Amino acid sequence: MPLDSVPSQAVEERPIRVRLDPPAEEPPRGPVRVPRRALLAVVVLFGLTYLAAQSCQQSQVRLSKDRAVQTALPRAGFEPQRTQVRLVRQGLNGHPFWAISFSVPAASGDGYAKLTTVRVDANTGKIESVNRERP
Question: Which residue among 63, 75, 82, 116 is least packed, with the fewest CB closer than 10 Å?
Answer without folding.
Answer: 82
